[in-house]
Design goal:
Its EC number is 2.5.1.-. Catalyzes the condensation of isopentenyl diphosphate (IPP) with allylic pyrophosphates generating different type of terpenoids. InterPro entries: UPP_synth-like (IPR001441), UPP_synth-like_CS (IPR018520), UPP_synth-like_sf (IPR036424). Homodimer. The longest helix has 21 residues. The protein contains nine helices and six strands, in the order αβααβαβαβαααββα. The protein has a single domain, classed as Decaprenyl diphosphate synthase-like (Undecaprenyl pyrophosphate synthetase), CATH 3.40.1180.10. It has a six-stranded parallel beta sheet, with helices on both faces. It has about 250 residues and is of the alpha/beta class. Helix content is about 45%, strand content about 15%. α5 links the parallel β3 and β4.
Length: about 250
């Protein structure tokens, strides 16, 4: 091991020890951004960048598992991404499907987060078959956000709620009275789960782009310049250390 590698390992161990004194996030969100730019700067194809980024997701989840973080939401494909060139989308669908299979093979529980109807029928069928093999008792649950948009999620939740209230025979005033923060939350894609404590975004972009809009009202954010394929375990540890040092006020 060279001197740089040794120093990296020493720093990583030091960060890990620092975190032992803190409560880590119970729900971690990650916006995996920068695959295409990483590939361009490396002189590789966009598809290669997406494949390296997909492999990084498996590595990232193993780090979270080692740290006993029980819930991770990974944004792999947004509704905006669905407008990308057909050849790129075809490759993305294959990569995402294979990645979900690998996440399940690793023993993690997978939940889809997003509008499945926006995805090709064959992809939906493949994912459904893979989910039948998932391990619900796993220590780590992974929300895979594909065909996901924060505004679309809220619209879907309200529409589903209105349909449920109408099915109860309520009139317009009754339906309006039944719409509340709590009732909308019960119809989100992440229903039954805690809101994210920390959201990480890679690639230097400092915006949410619609990720978990409703759920992130009290989340902490951590942005880093590194493109997703280059994200390291030490970057995760630094994000967690920064999170643990903050005083969370929850709007108070």
């Amino acid at each position: 091991m060279d001197d740089d590698g040794l120093l990296y390992r020493v720093y990583e161990r030091r960060l890990t020890r620092e975190l032992e004194a803190f409560d880590l996030p119970q729900h971690l969100g990650v916006i995996v951004d920068g695959n295409r730019r990483w590939a361009k700067e490396a002189g590789e194809t966009t598809e290669h960048g997406h494949r390296v980024g997909a492999a990084k997701i498996l590595e990232f989840l193993s780090w979270c598992d080692d740290l006993d973080i029980p819930l991770v939401t990974v944004w792999m494909l947004s509704t905006d991404n669905l407008r990308r060139p057909p050849e790129e989308l075809t490759a993305l669908y294959e990569i995402i499907g294979a990645t979900i299979g690998r996440i399940i093979d690793a023993g993690y529980c997978v939940r889809l987060t997003g509008n499945a109807e926006a995805l090709p029928q064959e992809m939906r069928a493949d994912i459904s078959r893979e989910q039948e093999q998932t391990a619900p008792e796993s220590r780590l649950t992974v929300n895979v956000a594909i065909g996901y948009g924060g505004r679309e999620e809220i619209v879907d939740a309200v529409q589903e709620l209105v349909r449920d209230l109408a099915a109860q025979g309520l009139d317009g005033d009754g339906i309006a009275a039944g719409i509340s923060i709590g009732s909308i939350a019960e119809h989100l894609y992440t229903r039954g789960q805690p809101d994210p404590d920390l959201i990480i975004r890679t690639s230097g972009e400092q915006r949410l782009s619609g990720f978990l809009l409703w759920q992130s009202v009290h989340s902490e954010y951590w942005f880093c310049e590194t493109y997703w394929p280059g994200f390291r375990r030490v970057d995760l540890l630094r994000a967690l250390r920064d999170f643990c040092r903050r005083e969370r006020r929850f709007g108070v």
